[in-house]
Amino acid sequence: MLVSPRGAGQGWFIDADPTTDAAFARPLAATRRFAAPGHPAAGRVDLLTAILHEMGHPLGLDDAYQGADRAGVMFGYLGKGER
Fold first, then answer.
1. What are the residues whose beta carbons fall under 8 Å from the beta carbon of 48, sequence distance 6 or more?
2. Could you tell me the pTM of the whole model?
3. What is the pLDDT of residues 33-44, one digit of tens each?
4. What's the DSSP call for residue 75?
């Protein structure tokens, strides 16, 4: 797996403390959170979430695109400021 140095032109958010979700203070679901407006994570793609998603593929997990899968790490789209 290759990681784009610029997050596919969007820019990566690299969390100083990836063991917490403190940078993503706006929960939308138990497994889906967003960064607060103005936070550095708000305008960038979360590198941790992207790597976890990509690690699922060698484990045999496919991308999911159904609405019910939206809060799962294998959902096929990841927005800026989303974990």
1. 15, 18, 83
2. 0.90
3. 999 999 999 999
4. B
